[in-house]
Structures are given as C-alpha cells and as structure tokens.
Amino acid sequence: MFVFALAFIWLGQSDLLDEPPFGWTVLGSGDIQVTLSWDSTADLDLIVEDPFGERLWLGKRISGSGGELDVVAHDNCEDLGDTPVENTYWFPGSAPDGEYKVYVIYAADCEGTGTADYTVRIRKNNRTIEEISNSIVEDKEQFVTSFEWP
To answer: What is the pTM of this model?
Structure first.
C-alpha cells in the first residue's frame, strides 16, 4: 500500500544512488514529516496546522513557519494513480516548538469510490512516532491526531 515506503528506502540510501528509480516518489523530510497515503482514486488532502495556527495544505503549500507541502496526489481528480501520497515536512532545524494538528479532507470522489481508507504517518527526525489508519467519506474534514515538537 505504501509507495512512499520505497521513497524512504531511497532517501536512506542516497549515497548509493544518484537519483531515485523511475516511478518512485521522493518525499521531503526533516524535523517533522507528515505523510498521507490512501488506496483509492479519491482526492484526499492533507492539512497540517503548525503551533501558530497556520495551516499547510494545497491552498498554501509553504508556511511562514518553514513547512512545505511537497507532494500532492489526485488534485482535482487529475493524474489518478494506484498509490497516492501527500507529504509535508519542515527542514532540519526549522520546525517551531509546540503542538501540531493533522487533518484529512475528502475533497472529491473522482471515480465513485465512496469511503476512502487512509494512513497518516508522522515522523520526527526521520523516525516514525505514530501511524494512524482510518476511513473518511466525501465532503468531510477529519481531525486525525496532534503531536508536540520537539
């Protein structure tokens, strides 16, 4: 289910490969990394709210606190793939201290898939601290979890 698992392997072995193999999605990582993956053609969106209340999402891909949404999938039901992933991260040394909140939005049912199952993985300093799996229905915003940095 996780195409980004391959990207993590590549990122961890960057000294062995000059570039990722064709078809792999390379994800940004750093102090904080939050990754959403799902198993359908639905258009889901990842939102991460920083300690200042600023939301990092498709409508604001770079935050004032240094976060970036670097990978987006199925936006407006375009480029539908089998293993969609969205990813946000803060560069090493840039994440502000405090509470972060994670949300998922079911933006569009692109091919009549109905309920979408998803997984959110939270990493701090390239170590997974939490992985949450759930389901969401169309036109809903769902709170997933919150966590503290550092």
So the answer is: 0.85
